[in-house]
Amino acid sequence: MRLALAIKVTANFDRAMEHCDNLVRVHQRAGGDAKGRRREEISVNRAIVVIAVASWQAVVQDMTKFLLEQHMPEASDSNHGVAQLLRGHVLGELRKFSTPNAENTRQLLQSVGYDPRPHWTWTNGAHGSRAITYRPHDIEDQLRDWLKIRHAIAHGDERMPEVSVLQAVREGSTSTTTGPTVRLADARACIAFIRTLTGVTIEGLASELSTTANANPITP
Question: N or C end: fewer C-beta atoms under 10 angstroms in the chain?
Answer without folding.
Answer: C
